[in-house]
Amino acid sequence: MKYRTDLAIERKELLDEARGSAKDIEGVSMEKIKYDEDITSTRIKILNPMGEIQLEKPMGNYITIEVNGILDEKDEIKERAGKALAKELSELIKFHYHLKVLVVGLGNDKVTPDALGPYTVSKVKVTRHFFIMYEADGDEELGCVSCFIPGVTGSTGMETAELIKGAVELCDPEVVIVVDSLAARNIDRVSTTIQINDTGIDPGGGMGNVRTGLSEQTLGRRVIAIGVPTVIDSRTIIREALEANLPQAQQVDDYIEEKGQDMIVTSTDIDQIIKDFSDIIANGINKTLHPGIYS
């Protein structure tokens, strides 16, 4: 039985479970960084095609930041998490005088678990219009930042990737940052986890409605994806509950397949989770792209 997850760290955990222990994986490197007692980062790098096969993800960097105490409002936890995210993000996007970035918020702001992208982008500091107004070709403290919320195909009638390609042609960024909701296997990660990667993303993946992928191959620019798991597949919850009884779990799985009643599940705290994580991610992006005014 196959578990649905967008997180590289969960792919690694599933592989470890299948092998019976945590071992090194050919074609994959991993290191852990502890920022403080509440925040840790796991950096997974897929090095070659063998690693791609093992983790079922393209070659590149996958960074998982795990934050404890957000819903409990621990002391300055959101600010600390934002700094950790900025530290990891700045390793992938180096600030320089001519830096130009497009930040895209994927998702549907009318569906709370899918609203992470739009909520986050609304809090990012946009500066491109100032560069145009003052005819500036760069700045020592601010990046030239544009933001775009393309909506969803069901409400626009247009393919999200095509809209983003148009925005890329218009503002000519060096890097595109894409923010979206993800799916996880473990319910605990819905309120604790941020994933960053430099391989791109498939819009709608977290909601089970995959569209044309966004990557350097499709956009012609480096793509950095930032996501938070906001949903879990109902099958995953059932399998976890019945993992000691695999035949029964398979029966339930077959029933869901037969009835076509596949569903996704989210937390009762999802409104607060979206608010908190959009604050954290926007803060991290602002610190990375505008180091002169966000410290």
From TrEMBL:
- EC class, as a word, reads hydrolase
Q: Which reaction does it catalyse?
A: Endopeptidase action with P4 Glu or Asp, P1 preferably Glu > Asp, P1' hydrophobic and P2' Ala
Signal peptide per UniProt: none
Q: Which InterPro entries match?
A: Pept_HybD-like_dom_sf, Peptidase_A25
Which Pfam families does its entry note? Peptidase_A25
Gene3D superfamilies linked to this entry: HybD-like (3.40.50.1450)
- PTM comment, free text: Autoproteolytically processed. The inactive tetrameric zymogen termed p46 autoprocesses to a smaller form termed p41, which is active only during spore germination.
Any keyword Nuclease? no
Q: What is its EC number?
A: 3.4.24.78
Gene Ontology MF, one: hydrolase activity
Going by the entry's taxonomy, the superkingdom of the source organism is recorded as: Bacteria
Record propeptide residues: 1-6
Alphabetized UniProt keyword annotations: Hydrolase, Protease, Zymogen
Tell me, how does this one assemble?
Answer: Homotetramer.
Q: Which HAMAP family match?
A: Germination_prot
| Function summary | Initiates the rapid degradation of small, acid-soluble proteins during spore germination.
Q: What is this protein called?
A: Germination protease
Q: Which organism is it from?
A: Anaerovorax odorimutans
The uppermost taxa in this organism's lineage are: Bacteria, Bacillati, Bacillota, Clostridia, Peptostreptococcales
